[in-house]
Structures are given as C-alpha cells and as structure tokens.
Write a sequence for this structure.
C-alpha cells in the first residue's frame, strides 16, 4: 500500500518537473530575439524535460507491475538526434548570415559551412 | 590470424553488442529466445552492411565510455537548471552570447562527433560548425563572462576523457 503511494507521488513529481522544464524551453524560444540564442532553449531544456516525462512513465509502469523499458530507448534516440538537428539549424543560421559572423578558426582557413566550392575548372586545365 | 577471423565474423563488435541490447529492450521483457535472436541480428546486420562501413575506430574503451556517460548525464542535469535560470531571470539586453573556437586534438571522426554531441547537450553551449580541415570546432555559448574559461573546460572535461576512450 505504502509503496503504491510513494510510486504515485514520485510519478507526479517527475511529471511536474518535466512539465516545468518543457515550459521553460518554450518561454526561452519565445523570449530570445537572436536565432542562435533561441536555439539554446529547446535543445537543452528539452532533454531533461522529456527525460523526466519518460521517467514518470517508467515509474508508473513499475508501480502497475507492467515493467516497461521502451522509455530508455526513446531517451537514447533523443540524445543521439537532438544535437544533429541543433547542428543543422546552426549551420543554416551561419549560412544565411542571420547571426553574428563567427570568428575565423585558429588552425584552418574557414568554417565548412562558409566554404564556397572552387570555381569550375576550365576545360582542359585539369 | 585469430584477430582476422574475429573481425571478418564481427566487423563492428560494439555495434553487435548495441544491436543486441536494443533488440532486448524493444521486447520489453527478457527471454532467452529473444536474447539469442538479438545476438543473431547483431551479427547479421553489421556483417551485411560492413561493405559501406569499412573503417572502425582503432581503440575503444567501454569502461571509460560508461564513466564518461555518467559525467555527461550529471552535467546535463546541472546544465538544464543553469539554462532554465538564465531563461527565466536574465533579460535579453544583459545576455552575453559568444562564439568560441575550440582547437581540436582529436582526430577520429567518431570522437569529434561525440564531442560535438556532448557540447550541444551540456551547459548553454551548442556546437555549430567544424572548420574545413577538421581542426577547429565552432561553439556558440548562450551566456558567459569568460569565453576562454568555457573553452578550457570543454578541453579538460570532455576532450581529455574522449582521448582516453579512443586510444
């Protein structure tokens, strides 16, 4: 009986924490004015926000004795894919020049997004 | 000789392990039959796709990888609280975003990918771009007073550990 009550409270707490972080992510998305800073809010706050919601789902399933571990996989895929989409959005921002121009790299010539392909070689010159 | 046979049979041993674990997790309940089937899938899939994926990282230490994951998960939790605090309390006018150029010591593409992913998942930083020859990483920071300190922390906290994993 008491285990059930603890489980219920734990699930509720995880749900609330998760909802709080997701809400903060949305506030950040609305509040920041620059495309690059706006990118920060959803990518990071989203991971713990959604992670907590999934943890709530797992605790609930353990409480009902219908153990579910799919949430671990969802979390794993989320952690692998979130940086990639963030990287794509950042690359588009740099390419379109909507953000501050990044400084030059210290060891190489330029950033790969800003590198323009070489001119077509003249026929016969190559 | 043994090594050659081993790598012919299992071109990517850790991928085999990962596929088997994912398959078992997908089943949602553990049974010996499904575990065996997971291992069979873990052998067939890397073997049949090895033509398109000829290189494997030279060294990979699983134990160090696990401790690195724990460090990263802890940092993610801390980072989320920090970023939430910045989002809720710092007004737009006082926000100090900055670009940081991180010189890379890592050479393996797998290691650089993991470093970039880690940076994106942790304290108010997003990895934005790689230089054309792959020796620098461009990182955007949400709010910092000292960009050099952030760069040094990335190098000492994550890159040093990744160098130990891939060595």
């Amino acid at each position: 009986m008491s285990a059930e009550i603890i489980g219920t409270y734990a699930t509720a707490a995880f749900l609330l924490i998760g909802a709080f972080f997701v809400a903060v992510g949305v506030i950040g998305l609305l509040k920041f004015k620059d495309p690059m800073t706006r990118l920060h809010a959803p990518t990071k706050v989203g991971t713990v926000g959604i992670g907590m919601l999934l943890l709530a789902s797992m605790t609930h399933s353990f409480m009902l004795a219908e153990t579910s571990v799919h949430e671990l996989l969802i979390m794993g895929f989320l952690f692998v894919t979130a940086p990639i989409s963030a990287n794509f959005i950042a690359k588009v921002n740099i390419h379109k020049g909507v953000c501050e121009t990044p400084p030059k790299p210290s060891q190489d010539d330029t950033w790969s997004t800003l590198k323009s392909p070489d001119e077509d070689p003249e026929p016969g010159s190559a | 000789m043994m090594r050659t046979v081993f790598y012919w049979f299992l071109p990517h041993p850790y991928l085999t392990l990962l596929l088997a674990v994912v398959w078992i997790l997908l089943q949602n309940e553990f049974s010996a039959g499904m575990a065996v089937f997971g291992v069979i899938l873990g052998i067939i899939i890397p073997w049949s796709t090895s033509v398109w994926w000829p290189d494997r990282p030279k060294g990979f230490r699983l134990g160090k990888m696990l401790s690195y994951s724990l460090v990263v998960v802890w940092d993610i939790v801390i980072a989320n609280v920090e970023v939430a605090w910045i989002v809720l309390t710092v007004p737009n006018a006082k926000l100090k975003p900055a670009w940081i150029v991180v010189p890379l010591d890592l050479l393996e593409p797998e290691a650089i990918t993991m470093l970039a992913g880690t940076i994106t998942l942790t304290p108010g930083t997003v990895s934005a771009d790689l230089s054309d020859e792959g020796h620098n990483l461009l990182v955007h920071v949400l709010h910092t007073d000292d960009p050099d300190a952030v760069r040094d922390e990335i190098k000492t906290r994550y890159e040093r550990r990744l160098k130990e994993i891939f060595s």
Notes: Chain A has a mean pLDDT of 81. The radius of gyration of chain A is 22 Å. Chain A touches chain B through 52 residues (CB under 8 Å). The longest helix of chain A spans residues 2-31.
